[in-house]
Amino acid sequence: MRHDGRKSDELRPLKIKRRFTRSAPGSVLIQAGRTTVLCTADVADEVPPWMKGQGRGWVTAEYGMLPGSTSPRKQRERGVKSDGRTTEIQRLVGRSLRAVVDLDALGERTVAVDCDVLEADGGTRTLSITGAFIALVDVLHAKLSGGSKLPLKDSVAAVSVGLVEGRPLLDLDYREDVAAAVDMNVVMTGGGRYVEVQGTGEEATFTDCELAALLSLARGGIEQLATLQKQALGKRWPFNL
Amino acid sequence: MRHDGRKSDELRPLKIKRRFTRSAPGSVLIQAGRTTVLCTADVADEVPPWMKGQGRGWVTAEYGMLPGSTSPRKQRERGVKSDGRTTEIQRLVGRSLRAVVDLDALGERTVAVDCDVLEADGGTRTLSITGAFIALVDVLHAKLSGGSKLPLKDSVAAVSVGLVEGRPLLDLDYREDVAAAVDMNVVMTGGGRYVEVQGTGEEATFTDCELAALLSLARGGIEQLATLQKQALGKRWPFNL
Amino acid sequence: MRHDGRKSDELRPLKIKRRFTRSAPGSVLIQAGRTTVLCTADVADEVPPWMKGQGRGWVTAEYGMLPGSTSPRKQRERGVKSDGRTTEIQRLVGRSLRAVVDLDALGERTVAVDCDVLEADGGTRTLSITGAFIALVDVLHAKLSGGSKLPLKDSVAAVSVGLVEGRPLLDLDYREDVAAAVDMNVVMTGGGRYVEVQGTGEEATFTDCELAALLSLARGGIEQLATLQKQALGKRWPFNL
Amino acid sequence: MRHDGRKSDELRPLKIKRRFTRSAPGSVLIQAGRTTVLCTADVADEVPPWMKGQGRGWVTAEYGMLPGSTSPRKQRERGVKSDGRTTEIQRLVGRSLRAVVDLDALGERTVAVDCDVLEADGGTRTLSITGAFIALVDVLHAKLSGGSKLPLKDSVAAVSVGLVEGRPLLDLDYREDVAAAVDMNVVMTGGGRYVEVQGTGEEATFTDCELAALLSLARGGIEQLATLQKQALGKRWPFNL
Amino acid sequence: MRHDGRKSDELRPLKIKRRFTRSAPGSVLIQAGRTTVLCTADVADEVPPWMKGQGRGWVTAEYGMLPGSTSPRKQRERGVKSDGRTTEIQRLVGRSLRAVVDLDALGERTVAVDCDVLEADGGTRTLSITGAFIALVDVLHAKLSGGSKLPLKDSVAAVSVGLVEGRPLLDLDYREDVAAAVDMNVVMTGGGRYVEVQGTGEEATFTDCELAALLSLARGGIEQLATLQKQALGKRWPFNL
Amino acid sequence: MRHDGRKSDELRPLKIKRRFTRSAPGSVLIQAGRTTVLCTADVADEVPPWMKGQGRGWVTAEYGMLPGSTSPRKQRERGVKSDGRTTEIQRLVGRSLRAVVDLDALGERTVAVDCDVLEADGGTRTLSITGAFIALVDVLHAKLSGGSKLPLKDSVAAVSVGLVEGRPLLDLDYREDVAAAVDMNVVMTGGGRYVEVQGTGEEATFTDCELAALLSLARGGIEQLATLQKQALGKRWPFNL
Q1: Which own/partner pairs from A210-216 qualify as long-range (CB within 8 Å, at least 24 positions apart)?
Q2: DSSP 3-state assignment of F126?
Q3: Which of A32, B240, C24, E139 could join E41 in a cystine, given CB atoms 3.0 to 4.6 angstroms apart?
Q4: What's the whole-model pTM score?
Q5: Mutate to test the interface with A, among D87, D96, D184, D210 (most CBs of A within 10 A)
Q6: Angle, CA D95 vertex, CA D92 and CA D97 arms, to 5°
Q7: Cβ distance A229 to A164 under 8 Å?
Q8: Do E68 and C36 touch (CB under 8 A)?
Q9: C-alpha distance from E84 to closest chain F C-alpha (Å)
Q10: How far, in Å, CA of A28 to CA of A12, rounded?
Q11: What digits encode the pLDDT tens for the residues E99-140?
């Protein structure tokens, strides 16, 4: 039994609230236990300079933590260089979304997704990906001319897994994350293909066998997350499955 | 009649939700129409270097706008110098709170209040002050030893007023703010004393008589806001009034 | 009697020297007691990007303090972010000048005014505005085609007032400024209309009655300043009054 | 056959030159084909502030590319924020080294390793890890009191693998890296345990089966690299194996 | 005849005004033709960290150009990195002053000299040195305990020389400076010893013979400057000569 | 006898290795004793904005020190402002190369030379110039259309001289440099004309006679360096001499 009563392969309770603010065309408040992320998305009719004239679109993501998202309060990021962790997360979220977007079908547009952590209790980067996909669907609906098929190849979600006291656990909260010898983030499509596997031992190492156990646990978690994403989007779910 | 149906001396509908997140000991989501600010507050047992050893406390405030708070999306502030507007607002919110805190009774502690705008439709700085006061009360309750009187001299709230097409209006939204020839922010205590009066004509000027009309309108608005703050805090309202 | 022998409604002795340097077309050295500001002005035949093609002009202002303007020496500002105070002052000076310039008549030009404090003894921001107006007149004379009327709607000057030990005082020097419970800067046109009213209580509050007394004192000071500006400009004074 | 004649599981020719410069106590020039990295290492008798007094040591790594390492010339990094890629690499190299160092046995010292790319043709981050381990052994020999066992638990090396046109390849050069649909960096100890697995599909995804093939290829490459590290260090190889 | 009527070995008219502002204990306005520099100096009772406990003092210098010192207006330096030219000048002025100060006799104090250019017409760095020496004498008088001998070994002054159309000229103004093939700054003590010789050909070279002619011209100019410095300081001139 | 056995007019042993890396078209590893600099050069078919349309070329130089070039390790320069010393060196190397390049004959191209110090034991700036000239010849050969004469007017090399304990010495190493009362860098063409003379007394001064002795010593050193440059370039030496 885990410290919060969950089983080793059990996700934290997940809540998804779409249209949380009305200022951004995609706006999703997603909560997993005590981790809360506001994912907003907007589209601009231009692409980065290095992509101009190719007829393809682009998806970018940014990530931030509000000062009040941790206690003690986290220093405000303005005027501070993006630290390594933030940069890694932003790149990961962007790559994850681009893996399921048909950039050719998107046309010369850029979707910008912002994942702002209002409350941080572990797993903010994976929850950001899971929420960002929903905001992405909403902004594509709102901004692309109706009737046409959304430029999406698959859905995408992410979850963390880790080895805590030698035991593989799904969806670590902050307390478990700190105790984990090996920490792995897995990003996977609704169709069950890997987008990203990042397994890291900080002052620790792991075997082929442990790697296999962690990957299997992650796959189970992502199947559940994909189902929850589908429920949240209802009729807007852009796939037949 | 104003564009949204309000009378000239009518506030926008105000919602206040305390304990919005659980990561910060004071956490207030405050909404006025389509302007939404998350005010979080925490206390640290230290003061800035220039105040050490005086036995007095300090209150600071920071202010930010999330990228998704406007459409089109606002550039993320990280790595960007605080612009003049942000700096002015942060200083205003801090001064306004300090005007009602008994810094001697607070002791060598710093209360840090963060006002993060989730959705911006005019009046974010005044709404930040009104919400920040509630988060301040909550954090003082949570962190100062119980039983003792809170180190507060009065409550504080703020509202904007302006001259739009020659007519004084209360609590401008974004559309009215853009059209205003004169824009004034008034910060006032629950007891009816001024903390700050900032009246500005951008490419415009105003008379003594117009100044008097604006101040009177602001006073009426702040009386309503003080009542709403009291309702939101319920038994935690730290004054007899 | 004030510490320097002035009456409560008495300005510090004011000296204005035009054409102090020859490198800038407008160059005014203005001194009020021991506060000295060099105001220089130049015009460029372009406007900021967001104003292009509208046929209107713009006026910007910058403000700085030389390291030797205070004792002990003030850290040089180069490489340092503009602090909040500097940003507030720059914005205030710019708005004050724009309030009296006919930006349409100016055409697609930008007037840049620099206010550099050589010696600081209180009231640098208000003295900057009073001096900047004179440099503005000189640069418009020097750079706009002769014969035509200057694109000015009125003159502008500024003064500080404050509550010191409960008593309203005009034109505070540094020692009085530090002792003031309420500090107010008033910017007003030669025609007696407000451009800006900024009243601030740091850890203090004030009543309607005190506000009225301060505004009245400021009005008297600005009338004197307008007369001194007119004398300094002599035949260049661009108004009939 | 690959474009340079290698088989799919063949490493690029590897050259290792120890004591390349005499200014740093560990100084290794490592070349894999046309990728050249200078790895230097030094020890300081202090730890970062957050580690003081714990009796443990720390290992940090930094990474840079000289302007002449690419053609056309790469902009010099001085005065430029570390980009995301650089930050990721620095963190990866640091974690990889810490995974094999016994930080308790190191004592309150910090080993700083610098990996400067003199010539870049793909695989600079993995080659940095492989070279950095050798510089680490040299600096520990030079700076820790003789006779004692080096504070190392295992050796560490790294290699890239990728899916190019559906085919798993070992040790990608730049041309192959650009063409790869999936790119994976694997860091492994001489004892065959994973330190880090980072598999990324940019606008692509991959299956369980492809993941297994890539991991197997990487394992084979790292076994060869570990042997070459051992040869380069000769008698200084700190393990019995 | 030069464009302004001077002979090849003639300095520009020099004016020196001591005590120009009262905020800094040393404050000298120095003008050579249309180049004007305000040199202020102050002393602090501390030395840079790397000098603590040695019983020696230090002298630093900073240099800046006001936006209005050139036409068109120069961009304000705040928030801008010191450019190479500024850094070179600051270092040069500091070294020049240190060459004549007895740092041991100064004790653990730092003299900070600021040279701010109000009007720039060539030769600002050499005029800064000549003026800074006078401000240095004034601040040492004002701040070191009376009666004692000032910690000065000699006086120092500087002048530029250059080859313009093959002809050596003394004290170049901006127009001559731009036309010069070789530009040389010479810093020399009142006693006739070199402190610094910086001769530079930008896209040009020069012979031993030309070097000798330039050095001789500079020596003559500096003898005149030393006399003018002595006159300006009157009884405060700290040497018998 | 000097501490390393050299005579007062003896250079350190010099090694020059051309084509050290293959990523840059000019790539020279130059060593003088224990000072090692990697000079790389590349050409771009564009000029800085302020030179466009003049038909002339430009030569820029940058200089850096790797963290491992000194012991203890030097802080990495990324994210750090160029310090004054670096800026001075970069400007010096650029001017020195431009003095011998026929910028008109170069056409609208920019040659960028990077001097990266791998190992620092004094004289890095002068060794950079001497090595940079060779990289410059190589890049001009590689990138300009064959057959045509290289756009070079002369060769250039540099050396330091100094007064150590009253004695003029050639080519100071770090230990001598620290002990020198006067330090001079001389840049000279192969034809014996000065490009730059920079003599500096830090807390010291020097006479005409000492200046003459230092210049003579430098001239002898540069004649030797020019011969070594010619040998290194072999048939590529672009002059008849």
Answers
A1: A210/A163, A210/A168, A210/A182, A211/D194, A211/D197, A211/D215, A213/A168, A214/A161, A214/A162, A214/A163, A214/A168, A214/A182, A214/A184, A214/A186, A215/A161, A215/A184, A215/A186, A215/D208, A215/D211
A2: helix
A3: E139
A4: 0.87
A5: D87
A6: 110
A7: no
A8: no
A9: 5
A10: 18
A11: 999 999 999 999 999 999 999 999 999 999 999 999 999 999
Q: C205 and B193 in contact by Cβ < 8 A?
A: yes
Residues of E whose CB is below 8 A from C64: 66, 76, 78
Do chains A and B meet with 3 or more Cβ pairs nearer than 8 Å? Answer: yes
Mutate to test the interface with D, among A205, A208, A210 (most CBs of D within 10 A): A205
For A165-217, strand residue ranges (E) read 167-170, 180-189, 194-201
Please report the pLDDT score of residue B145 as a whole number: 64
Alpha-carbon distance B116 to B37, whole Å?
Answer: 6
Q: What is the 3-state secondary structure (H, E, C) of C118-144?
A: EECCCCHHHHHHHHHHHHHHHHHHHHC
What chains are in contact with D, requiring at least 3 Cβ pairs below 8 Å? A, F
What is the mean predicted confidence (pLDDT) over C65-79? Answer: 87
Query: What pLDDT does residue F102 have?
Result: 95
Alpha carbon separation from A132 to A189, A198, B53, C148, D106 (Å, rounded):
13, 19, 48, 60, 43
pLDDT tens across the length of chain B (241 residues): 899 999 999 999 999 999 999 999 999 999 999 999 999 999 999 999 999 999 999 999 999 999 999 989 998 876 556 677 888 899 999 999 999 999 999 999 999 999 999 999 999 999 999 999 999 999 999 988 666 789 999 999 999 999 999 999 999 999 999 999 999 999 999 999 999 999 998 778 999 999 999 999 999 999 999 999 999 999 999 887 6
Cβ E40–C67 below 8 Å, yes or no?
Answer: yes
How big is chain A, counted in residues?
Answer: 241
> How far from chain centre, in Å, is Cα C15?
14
Distance from CA of D5 to the nearest CA of A (A): 30
* DSSP single-letter state for residue A51: G
Q: Which residues of C touch B202 (CB under 8 A)?
A: 95, 98-99
Instruction: Enumerate the β-bridge partners of residue A62.
Output: A114
Chain B nearest C-alpha distance from C199 (Å): 5
Q: Find the residue in C nearest to E119 (Cα).
A: C23
Helix F124-143 / helix F208-233 crossing angle, nearest 10 deg:
40
The closest of E20, E60, E118, E143 to C119, measured between CA atoms, is: E20
E83: which chain F residues are within 8 Å (Cβ-Cβ)?
Answer: 87
In chain F, what are the domains?
A: 14-234 (3.30.230.70)
Answer yes or no: is pLDDT of F238 > 70.
Answer: yes
Structure tokens at F14: 């010099």
CA distance C237 to C137: 8
User: Do the chains contact at B119 and A23, CB–CB below 8 Å?
Assistant: yes
Consecutive 10-residue runs of chain A (241 residues): their mean pLDDT?
95 97 96 97 95 95 96 80 82 96 95 97 98 97 79 97 96 96 96 96 90 97 98 91 60
**List of chain B residues whose C-beta atoms are within 8 Å of the C-beta of residue A114:** 66-68, 73, 76
User: The complex's ipTM?
Assistant: 0.92
Rounded Cα distance between F6 and C213, Å, is 84
Q: Are E183 and E160 in contact (CB under 8 A)?
A: yes
Contacts of B162 in chain C (CB under 8 A): none
Please tell me the number of Cα atoms within 13 Å of A232 on its side-chain side: 27
The residue type at A201: G
Tokens 């040389």 -> residue: E184
Q: Which residues, 6 or more positions from B20, have their beta carbon under 8 angstroms from its beta carbon?
A: A118, B27, B28, B29, B38
What residues of D are in contact with residue F119 (Cβ under 8 Å)?
A: 21-23
Q: Which two tokens stand for residue A85?
A: 């962790």
Strand, helix or coil at F59? strand
